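Input set for joint prediction.
Command: fold jointly, output C-alpha cells.
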Amino acid sequence: MVVTHQLPLPIIEQKALQIRRQIIKMLAHAGSGHPAGALGMADVFAALYFHILNVDPKNPEWEERDRLILSNGHICPVLYATLAEAGYFPKEELLTLRQIHSRLQGHPHRHSIAGVENTSGPLGQGLSLAAGWALGLKMNHNQSRVFCITSDGEHQEGQTWEAYQFAYKYQLNNLVNIVDRNQIQITDYTKHVMPLEPLKAKIESFGWQTIEVDGHDITQIIAACETARFEQALPTALICHTVPGKGVSFMENKPEWHGKPPDEEQAARALKELSDE
Amino acid sequence: MENTQPTSKLEKMSTRDGFGVGLIQAAAQHDRLVGVCADLAESVRMKQFAIQFPGRFVEVGVAEQNLAGVTAGLALAGKLPVAASYACFHPANSWGVIRTSICYANLPVVLVGGHGGLATGEDGATHQSLEDLALMRVLPNMIVLSPADGEEARQALLAAVNANSPVYIRISKPTVPIHSSPNQFKIGQATQLRKGSSATIIATGLMVSQAMNAADILNNEGISITVINMSTIKPLDEAAIIKAAKKTKAIITVEDHQINGGLGSAVSEVLAEHQLALPFRRMGMKDQFGQSGSTEQLLAHYHLTPRDLAIGIKQLLKR
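C-alpha cells >
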C-alpha cells in the first residue's frame, strides 16, 4: 500500500509557508527555541511529508511507513509544525511547545506524540539509530525507507562518521541522510568553529552516493530522493544547501538566530514577511 | 535456596561463558534476537552465536557510540538486540547514547559489559571497568544485573531478553565456582546463599565466591555468616537488605567495583533511609584505579581476598 500524498508543487510550497508561520508563532509563544535551522528546513520537511515519505498520519505506527529520524533535535519546531500540518495532531497544540506537561518537548521524544519516531537532542546520535533501523528493516524484509535529518554542525561529532562507515558496510540503500548544510552553528559560522569542507568529498570517501541540492528547491529535493530510491547498494547522502532563517530577512544567515526566539515585535515583522495572503 | 556444598567441589564457569551459553539459548527461543558487537565477539563470548546465527550477527567495528545507536535502531525495527563489548568502552564510551537514544526512549535492549572489574587482570587499569555499575545505576528505566557465576549469567541473559526494558549485564573473565541453582534467578531478587546469625556479607559478581570462602573461614572460627548474592543492582532487593540488618549484627558489602556508586552505595542508601543503624562497611575499590597483575594478586593487593573479608567482619563485630 502506498499512501503518500504526492501533492503538486504549488501546494507543497504553500505548506512550507504555513510551516514557517507556525514556527515563528510557536517560538515567540514559547519564548525560547531554535528558529534559524527550523525555518531553513521548512522546504525539505514540506517536500518529505507532502510528497516523498510514504506515511499515513492517521496510522502513525503503520509497519510499512517510511521512517523520518530527526537527529538534530533542536530544529523540532519544523518537525512539529509539519506533523500538525499533515494531520498527525491538532495545530492548536503547537502553541504548547516547551511548556510544562506539553507533548511538544523542547527536544523531541519518541513516546511524546504521534509521528515523532525517535528521541534526540545530543548531536551525533541520529544517523547511528537510523542506520540500525534501516538494517533491522532489511532483516525483516520490509521495503520501507529510513530518512535521517542531520545538521552540518553535527558532522563534527565522531559518531556521525562511525554511522557512515557502518551504513556503507551493510549496503543500506534504504537509508537517506539529509544534511542541512546551513553553514551556521550555535557559536558562529561552521567554517570558523570547525571547518567541514570538503564535506561532499568526505562523505563520498565513506562510500556513500552523495548528491548536492538547493534545499529550498522542492523539485530538486524530490528528484534526489527518487535517485536514492533506485540505488542498488549504496546509502545516499543528500546535502541540502539551505539558508538558516529562510523567509525572514533579519534572521537569514545569522548565527545569532540559531538559538534565540523572536520577541513579539520581531514575530509580527516575521509573519508580515511570511504573509499567506 | 542455600548451597551447602563445599566450594572446592562445585563446578566452575565464568560469567562470560554463562552469557555465551545463554545467548545461544535465547536466540533459539527468540527469532527477533540479534547480537551486536564491537570487535570483541570472542572475548565477550558472542562468537559462537555469530557462527550459529550469522544472519543475526551485526559487527560494528571499534565504534561503541555507534554500537549503542545501531542497537537503538534495531530495537525500533522490532528486533531484540543484545549488544556487547568491554565495559571499559561500553558503557564508558557510549553512555550518552545509551542515556538518550536507549534509556529515555525506553527501548527493550540488552547491553552487556564484558571484562568487568579488577578481574580483567594483566591488561591493567585502562581495561578494568570499575565504574560501570555506577554509570548504569543512575539511568532511569535501566535494569542493572551483576551475576555471580556462569549459571547465573546464563539465567540473567534469559531473563533480560524477556524484561521488555533496557537491561545492563556485567560479566567478567575469571572462572568461578557455581553457587547458583538452576531456575533461581529473578530480576530484582537477591539470593541468600548462606544463613548465619553474626553478620551479613552482601556481595555481587565475582565477589560472591570470595564471600562464600570468607564465610567458610569464619565458620571454622565459630562465627556464622549470612551471605547474600545481590545480582540485581537495580531494582535493588530492599527487603533482603532490611531483613539482613534486622537479623544480623553487622553488614559488609563487597564488589569488584568502586565502593562509590555501585553496590555499596546502593545498600547504604537503603540502610540510611530506613534508619537501620548497625556496623557497616563497604569493601571494594576505594576511589582509585587498578593496575596490571593477576586477578589473585590484584584482589590481594586491594584487600579483597576471603581473608580480608573475614578480618573486616571481625573488626565490625568488635565495634
